[in-house]
C-alpha cells in the first residue's frame, strides 16, 4: 500500500503499546525492521531478535498507515528489568561490565533504553526514523514510571540525542564509546537523566515533547527541513492496568550477568 497523501503531505499514525498486548503488530514491526537492516547489509542484530515480543518490560512505538495495513517505521523502549537485559547491556556488557552496575543503579528509580529505531525508505526524509519517534518515546517514558533513558548511538545520531536531552556517559567503555557492532564502527553510550523536565534538551525539542505528553492522542502537522507530514498520535497507553514497574525491576534480581550466549556476534545500535 502506498503512502496516503493529504494536501500533499504523507499521513500516518504513530501508536505506542506494550509489546505483549499486541503480538501481531510486533511481528509486523520485526518484519519491517529486518527488511531495512538487510537492505543495508546487516545480517544479525541483537534488537531484531523477537525475544522482546514476550518481554513484559518492552514497549513499542510504530508508524503505520491509518488503517494499520502498512508499517513505515518504529522504535522501542525496553524497561530495565523484565525477562531480558537491556540491549545496551547485551551489546557492551562483555567489553565493560561497569555498564551492568550502572544500569542497575539507574533502574532503582526507573530506567530503560530507547532502541530499535528505524524507518522504511518509502518515508525517508520526513523525520520518522529520527526526531518524531524519538520525541514520542521520551514523551511516554514518565507514563510507564521512568525517570531516565539509555541509548547506544551511532555517530550520526549523537547530535539528535543531545538535542532531546541526552548526555554522553563517560564512565563506561573508552570515555563512553565502544567499537560496536564492528571494529570500524563507533557506538556511544548516552543517558537522558531527567525525562520529566528535560533540562539539557533544546527549547524546541523540549517544548515539542511536553506538547506530545500533554496531548497524548491527536493529530499534528510536523515539519522537518521544509517537509511536512501529518502524524496521528496515539500515545495514551491505556492498557496499563497490570503494569507494575517495581515488579518488573525485581525480575532482574540485581545487575545482569552477560555471557557469550547473551552476546553473540550480533549487531544493533540506535
The name CATH uses for the topology is Aminopeptidase
- Low-pLDDT stretches are 263-269
The helix/strand class is alpha+beta
Please count the helical segments.
7
Q: What would you say the CATH architecture is?
A: 3-Layer(aba) Sandwich
How many whole angstroms does the radius of gyration measure?
A: 17 Å
Task: Indicate the multimeric state.
Answer: single chain
Arithmetic mean pLDDT = 89
Order of helices and strands: EEHEEHHEHEHEEEHEEH
According to CATH, the homologous superfamily is Gcn5-related N-acetyltransferase (GNAT)
N- and C-termini, Cα separation: 27 Å
Count of beta strands: 11
* Net shape: globular
Largest beta-sheet characterization:
11 strands, mixed
Q: Please report the first level of CATH classification, the CATH class.
A: Alpha Beta
What labels describe this entry?
disordered C terminus, 7 helices, alpha+beta, eleven-stranded mixed β-sheet, globular
Task: Describe the protein's architecture and organization.
- There is one protein chain.
- By secondary structure, this protein is of the alpha+beta class.
- The chain has a single domain, classed as Aminopeptidase.
- Helix content is 26%, strand content 26%.
- The protein is built from seven helices and eleven strands.
- Strands 1, 2, 3, 4, 5, 6, 7, 8, 9, 10 and 11 form an eleven-stranded mixed β-sheet that branches.
- A hairpin with a 6-residue loop joins strand 3 and strand 4 (71-79).
- Helix 4 (128-140) packs across helix 6.
- The longest helix has 17 residues, at 23-39.
- The chain starts with a strand and ends in a 20-residue tail after the last helix.
- Mean pLDDT is 89; it is low at 263-269.
Amino acid at each position: 500500500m502506498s503512502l496516503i497523501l493529504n494536501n500533499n503531505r504523507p499521513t500516518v499514525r504513530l501508536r505506542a503499546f506494550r509489546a505483549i498486548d499486541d503480538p501481531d503488530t510486533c511481528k509486523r514491526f520485526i518484519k519491517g525492521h529486518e527488511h531495512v537492516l538487510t537492505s543495508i547489509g546487516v545480517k544479525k542484530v541483537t534488537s531484531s531478535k523477537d525475544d522482546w515480543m514476550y518481554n513484559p518490560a518492552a514497549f513499542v512505538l510504530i508508524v503505520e498507515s491509518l488503517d494499520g495495513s502498512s508499517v513505515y517505521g518504529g522504535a522501542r523502549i525496553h524497561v530495565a528489568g523484565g525477562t531480558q537485559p537491556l540491549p545496551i547491556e547485551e551489546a557492551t556488557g562483555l567489553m565493560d561490565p561497569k555498564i551492568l552496575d550502572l544500569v542497575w543503579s539507574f533502574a532503582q528509580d526507573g530506567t530503560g533504553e530507547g532502541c530499535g529505531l528505524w524507518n522504511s525508505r518509502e518515508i525517508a526524509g520526513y523525520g520518522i526514523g529520527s526526531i518524531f519517534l524519538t520525541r514520542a518515546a521520551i514523551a511516554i517514558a514518565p507514563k510507564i514510571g521512568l525517570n531516565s533513558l539509555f541509548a547506544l548511538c551511532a555517530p550520526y545520531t549523537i547530535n539528535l540525542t543531545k538535542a532531546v536531552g541526552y548526555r554522553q556517559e563517560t564512565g563506561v567503555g573508552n570515555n563512553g564509546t565502544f567499537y560496536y557492532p564492528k571494529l570500524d564502527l563507533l557506538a556511544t553510550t548516552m543517558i537522558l537523566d531527567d525525562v520529566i523536565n528535560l533540562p539539557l534538551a533544546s527549547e524546541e525539542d523540549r517544548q515539542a515533547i511536553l506538547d506530545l505528553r500533554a496531548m497524548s492522542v491527536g493529530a499534528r502537522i510536523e515539519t522537518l527541513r521544509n517537509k511536512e507530514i501529518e502524524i496521528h498520535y496515539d500515545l495514551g497507553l491505556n492498557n496499563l492496568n497490570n503494569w507494575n514497574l517495581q515488579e518488573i525491576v525485581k525480575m532482574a534480581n540485581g545487575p545482569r550477568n552477560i555471557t557469550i550466549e547473551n552476546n553473540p556476534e550480533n549487531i544493533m545500535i540506535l
